[in-house]
Amino acid sequence: MHISCSPLLLLLLAATVSPNGALSDDEKRALVELHNLYRAQVSPPAADMLHMRWDEELAAFAKAYAQQCVWGHNKERGRRGENLFAITEEGMDVPLAMEEWHHEREHYNLSAATCDQGQMCGHYTQLVWAKTERIGCGSHFCEKLQGVEEINIQLLVCNYEPPGNVKGKRPYQEGTPCSLCPSGYRCENSLCGAEPSVNSGLNSGLGHIGGPLLGLLLLPSLVLAGIF
Ligand SMILES: *[C@@H]1O[C@H](CO)[C@@H](O)[C@H](O)[C@H]1NC(C)=O
Protein backbone atom coordinates (compact mmCIF):
# COMPACT_ATOMS: atom_id res chain seq x y z
CA MET A 1 0.00 0.00 0.00
CA HIS A 2 1.43 3.37 -1.01
CA ILE A 3 0.77 6.57 0.77
CA SER A 4 1.20 9.54 -1.50
CA CYS A 5 2.80 12.62 -0.12
CA SER A 6 1.01 15.74 -1.20
CA PRO A 7 2.93 18.87 -2.17
CA LEU A 8 2.81 21.74 0.21
CA LEU A 9 1.20 25.09 0.15
CA LEU A 10 2.75 28.08 1.79
CA LEU A 11 0.73 31.15 2.37
CA LEU A 12 2.20 34.45 3.25
CA LEU A 13 0.09 37.11 4.78
CA ALA A 14 0.71 40.30 6.68
CA ALA A 15 -0.17 40.99 10.32
CA THR A 16 1.14 40.31 13.84
CA VAL A 17 2.85 37.37 15.56
CA SER A 18 1.95 35.37 18.67
CA PRO A 19 4.91 34.57 20.97
CA ASN A 20 5.58 30.81 20.86
CA GLY A 21 2.71 29.91 18.63
CA ALA A 22 1.19 26.98 20.51
CA LEU A 23 -2.42 26.19 19.66
CA SER A 24 -5.02 27.38 22.13
CA ASP A 25 -7.81 25.06 23.24
CA ASP A 26 -10.18 27.11 21.10
CA GLU A 27 -7.98 26.57 18.07
CA LYS A 28 -7.82 22.83 18.75
CA ARG A 29 -11.59 22.72 19.03
CA ALA A 30 -11.95 24.71 15.82
CA LEU A 31 -9.68 22.26 13.99
CA VAL A 32 -11.81 19.27 14.97
CA GLU A 33 -15.07 21.11 14.41
CA LEU A 34 -14.12 22.37 10.98
CA HIS A 35 -12.81 18.98 9.90
CA ASN A 36 -16.12 17.42 10.90
CA LEU A 37 -18.10 20.24 9.32
CA TYR A 38 -16.34 19.84 5.99
CA ARG A 39 -16.59 16.05 6.24
CA ALA A 40 -20.33 16.21 6.86
CA GLN A 41 -20.82 18.52 3.89
CA VAL A 42 -18.90 16.73 1.15
CA SER A 43 -20.53 16.77 -2.26
CA PRO A 44 -21.45 14.25 -3.57
CA PRO A 45 -22.41 12.99 -0.09
CA ALA A 46 -20.41 10.29 1.68
CA ALA A 47 -21.92 7.01 2.85
CA ASP A 48 -19.04 6.04 5.12
CA MET A 49 -17.57 9.24 6.55
CA LEU A 50 -16.33 8.76 10.11
CA HIS A 51 -16.52 11.46 12.74
CA MET A 52 -13.05 12.77 13.61
CA ARG A 53 -11.90 13.23 17.17
CA TRP A 54 -8.91 14.90 18.76
CA ASP A 55 -6.04 12.63 19.79
CA GLU A 56 -3.56 13.96 22.35
CA GLU A 57 -0.75 11.62 21.28
CA LEU A 58 -1.07 12.74 17.69
CA ALA A 59 -1.19 16.34 18.86
CA ALA A 60 2.03 15.92 20.85
CA PHE A 61 3.65 14.24 17.86
CA ALA A 62 2.57 17.06 15.54
CA LYS A 63 3.71 19.74 17.95
CA ALA A 64 7.14 18.17 18.40
CA TYR A 65 7.59 18.19 14.64
CA ALA A 66 6.32 21.76 14.28
CA GLN A 67 8.96 22.81 16.82
CA GLN A 68 11.68 21.56 14.46
CA CYS A 69 10.71 24.36 12.06
CA VAL A 70 11.13 22.46 8.82
CA TRP A 71 9.05 23.16 5.71
CA GLY A 72 8.49 19.64 4.45
CA HIS A 73 6.78 16.47 5.53
CA ASN A 74 7.97 14.65 8.63
CA LYS A 75 10.00 11.71 7.37
CA GLU A 76 9.45 9.97 10.70
CA ARG A 77 5.68 10.26 10.51
CA GLY A 78 5.24 6.52 10.05
CA ARG A 79 1.67 5.52 9.36
CA ARG A 80 0.23 8.91 10.01
CA GLY A 81 -1.31 11.28 7.49
CA GLU A 82 -0.01 14.84 7.56
CA ASN A 83 -1.17 18.28 6.42
CA LEU A 84 0.99 21.38 6.77
CA PHE A 85 0.20 25.06 6.62
CA ALA A 86 2.40 28.09 7.15
CA ILE A 87 1.60 31.73 7.49
CA THR A 88 3.92 34.69 8.02
CA GLU A 89 3.71 37.29 10.71
CA GLU A 90 0.04 36.89 11.50
CA GLY A 91 -0.71 34.41 14.27
CA MET A 92 -2.08 31.04 13.32
CA ASP A 93 -5.38 31.31 11.49
CA VAL A 94 -7.10 27.94 11.81
CA PRO A 95 -10.16 28.70 9.67
CA LEU A 96 -7.90 30.03 6.93
CA ALA A 97 -5.71 26.94 7.02
CA MET A 98 -8.78 24.75 6.83
CA GLU A 99 -10.24 26.82 4.00
CA GLU A 100 -7.01 26.54 2.02
CA TRP A 101 -6.91 22.76 2.43
CA HIS A 102 -10.59 22.42 1.65
CA HIS A 103 -10.36 24.66 -1.41
CA GLU A 104 -8.50 21.93 -3.28
CA ARG A 105 -11.81 20.08 -3.72
CA GLU A 106 -12.31 22.19 -6.84
CA HIS A 107 -9.50 20.31 -8.51
CA TYR A 108 -10.51 16.84 -7.40
CA ASN A 109 -12.68 14.46 -9.42
CA LEU A 110 -14.17 11.92 -7.04
CA SER A 111 -15.56 9.51 -9.61
CA ALA A 112 -12.26 9.32 -11.45
CA ALA A 113 -10.19 9.72 -8.25
CA THR A 114 -7.98 12.21 -10.08
CA CYS A 115 -6.56 15.64 -9.41
CA ASP A 116 -6.35 18.24 -12.18
CA GLN A 117 -2.90 18.44 -13.68
CA GLY A 118 -0.62 20.88 -11.91
CA GLN A 119 -2.97 21.18 -8.93
CA MET A 120 -2.83 19.87 -5.37
CA CYS A 121 -5.61 17.74 -3.90
CA GLY A 122 -3.84 15.85 -1.13
CA HIS A 123 -4.76 18.19 1.70
CA TYR A 124 -8.41 17.98 0.70
CA THR A 125 -8.46 14.22 0.28
CA GLN A 126 -6.84 13.78 3.71
CA LEU A 127 -9.36 16.18 5.22
CA VAL A 128 -12.28 14.13 3.85
CA TRP A 129 -10.67 10.70 4.06
CA ALA A 130 -13.57 8.65 5.40
CA LYS A 131 -11.57 6.13 7.40
CA THR A 132 -9.44 8.71 9.19
CA GLU A 133 -10.94 9.21 12.64
CA ARG A 134 -8.20 10.69 14.80
CA ILE A 135 -6.53 14.06 14.37
CA GLY A 136 -3.89 15.88 16.37
CA CYS A 137 -2.29 19.18 15.43
CA GLY A 138 0.47 21.37 16.76
CA SER A 139 1.67 24.82 15.91
CA HIS A 140 4.92 26.65 16.44
CA PHE A 141 6.31 30.08 15.71
CA CYS A 142 9.51 29.72 13.69
CA GLU A 143 11.82 32.69 13.32
CA LYS A 144 13.52 30.60 10.67
CA LEU A 145 11.64 27.88 8.83
CA GLN A 146 14.07 25.51 7.15
CA GLY A 147 13.44 25.43 3.41
CA VAL A 148 11.81 28.86 3.23
CA GLU A 149 13.47 32.25 2.82
CA GLU A 150 10.87 34.27 4.66
CA ILE A 151 11.33 34.70 8.39
CA ASN A 152 8.89 34.71 11.32
CA ILE A 153 6.53 32.01 10.21
CA GLN A 154 3.77 30.28 12.11
CA LEU A 155 3.72 26.59 11.19
CA LEU A 156 0.73 24.29 11.62
CA VAL A 157 1.16 20.52 11.48
CA CYS A 158 -1.81 18.15 11.59
CA ASN A 159 -1.33 14.39 11.77
CA TYR A 160 -4.02 11.84 11.06
CA GLU A 161 -4.77 8.21 11.88
CA PRO A 162 -5.44 6.05 10.07
CA PRO A 163 -3.64 7.92 7.27
CA GLY A 164 -5.46 9.01 4.12
CA ASN A 165 -4.25 9.43 0.55
CA VAL A 166 -3.83 5.76 -0.19
CA LYS A 167 -2.82 5.70 -3.83
CA GLY A 168 -5.61 4.82 -6.25
CA LYS A 169 -8.29 4.92 -3.56
CA ARG A 170 -11.11 7.39 -3.27
CA PRO A 171 -11.32 9.36 -0.03
CA TYR A 172 -14.86 8.19 0.62
CA GLN A 173 -17.72 6.18 -0.84
CA GLU A 174 -20.45 8.19 -2.41
CA GLY A 175 -23.97 7.49 -1.14
CA THR A 176 -26.66 8.34 1.39
CA PRO A 177 -24.93 9.73 4.51
CA CYS A 178 -24.25 7.03 7.09
CA SER A 179 -25.59 4.23 4.88
CA LEU A 180 -22.21 2.51 5.10
CA CYS A 181 -21.15 3.17 8.69
CA PRO A 182 -19.05 0.39 10.26
CA SER A 183 -20.97 -1.71 12.75
CA GLY A 184 -21.03 -0.20 16.21
CA TYR A 185 -21.07 3.32 14.80
CA ARG A 186 -24.11 5.52 14.83
CA CYS A 187 -25.11 8.39 12.62
CA GLU A 188 -24.70 11.90 13.90
CA ASN A 189 -24.76 14.99 11.69
CA SER A 190 -24.20 12.85 8.58
CA LEU A 191 -21.07 11.31 10.12
CA CYS A 192 -20.48 7.84 11.53
CA GLY A 193 -19.56 8.26 15.18
CA ALA A 194 -17.96 5.61 17.36
CA GLU A 195 -19.78 4.57 20.51
CA PRO A 196 -19.98 5.19 23.36
CA SER A 197 -19.57 8.89 22.83
CA VAL A 198 -18.50 10.86 19.80
CA ASN A 199 -18.49 13.96 21.95
CA SER A 200 -15.70 13.04 24.31
CA GLY A 201 -12.71 15.07 25.33
CA LEU A 202 -12.11 18.23 23.37
CA ASN A 203 -15.34 17.84 21.50
CA SER A 204 -17.50 18.20 24.55
CA GLY A 205 -19.91 21.05 24.38
CA LEU A 206 -19.32 21.63 20.69
CA GLY A 207 -22.88 21.55 19.51
CA HIS A 208 -22.57 24.45 17.13
CA ILE A 209 -21.27 22.89 13.97
CA GLY A 210 -22.05 25.28 11.17
CA GLY A 211 -22.42 28.13 13.64
CA PRO A 212 -20.23 31.15 14.31
CA LEU A 213 -17.03 29.60 12.98
CA LEU A 214 -18.28 29.87 9.44
CA GLY A 215 -18.20 33.61 9.75
CA LEU A 216 -14.44 33.46 10.16
CA LEU A 217 -13.86 31.84 6.81
CA LEU A 218 -13.06 35.13 5.13
CA LEU A 219 -9.77 35.16 3.31
CA PRO A 220 -7.39 37.98 4.07
CA SER A 221 -5.72 39.20 0.92
CA LEU A 222 -2.96 36.86 -0.12
CA VAL A 223 0.44 38.25 -0.88
CA LEU A 224 1.83 35.07 -2.26
CA ALA A 225 0.87 31.46 -2.65
CA GLY A 226 3.77 29.21 -3.52
CA ILE A 227 3.99 25.55 -4.33
CA PHE A 228 6.84 23.53 -2.92
C1 LIG B 1 -14.64 13.08 -13.68
O1 LIG B 1 -14.05 12.01 -14.35
C2 LIG B 1 -14.98 11.24 -15.09
C3 LIG B 1 -14.26 10.00 -15.59
O2 LIG B 1 -13.06 10.33 -16.23
C4 LIG B 1 -15.56 12.10 -16.20
O3 LIG B 1 -16.47 11.36 -16.97
C5 LIG B 1 -16.23 13.31 -15.58
O4 LIG B 1 -16.68 14.19 -16.59
C6 LIG B 1 -15.30 14.05 -14.64
N1 LIG B 1 -16.06 15.06 -13.93
C7 LIG B 1 -15.71 16.33 -13.94
C8 LIG B 1 -16.57 17.24 -13.15
O5 LIG B 1 -14.76 16.74 -14.57
Automatic annotation (TrEMBL):
Interacts with PSP94/MSMB. GO terms for cellular component: extracellular region. Pfam families: CAP (PF00188). May inhibit cardiomyocyte growth. Its main location: secreted. Residues 26-168 form the SCP domain. PANTHER family: CYSTEINE-RICH SECRETORY PROTEIN-RELATED. Residues 1-24 form the signal peptide. It is found in: Secreted. Keywords: Glycoprotein, Protease inhibitor, Secreted, Signal. This is Peptidase inhibitor 16. Belongs to the CRISP family. InterPro entries: Allrgn_V5/Tpx1_CS (IPR018244), CAP_dom (IPR014044), CAP_sf (IPR035940), CRISP-related (IPR001283). GO terms for molecular function: peptidase inhibitor activity. It comes from Mustela putorius furo (European domestic ferret). Gene3D superfamilies: CAP.
